Amino acid sequence: VQLQASGGGLVLAGGSLRLSCAASARSFSNNGVGWFRQAPEKEREFVAGISWSGDRTSYTDSAKGRFTISRDRSKNTVYLQMNSLKPEDTAVYSCAASRYATVATSPIDYRYWGQGTQVTVSS
Known about the structure:
By secondary structure, this protein is mostly beta strands. The chain is 0% helix and 49% strand.
């Protein structure tokens, strides 16, 4: 499974971005998908995850109420809508396909990783 993340960029604080994660294989549709981020000199952090069916989601506390993860199974794509962005959201965001159908929050539960997309929020 190959994953392609896109949609990052430079935005002012308070602005919005929508990240996309497109998969190359149908098997993506049977897996949970997650978004992670890593800022310079910081560990990779779970941001949001969604189950294979799309009926269950999970967010890190700092993302709750601002970010929304969703998936379009017909397009084999998962989205991360990010609103009210803050400078502390600045990081490289990566998507990954879980080993399982349910929502997973630990990186060890993810098997396939895409390359990251840079999100920079200026104050």
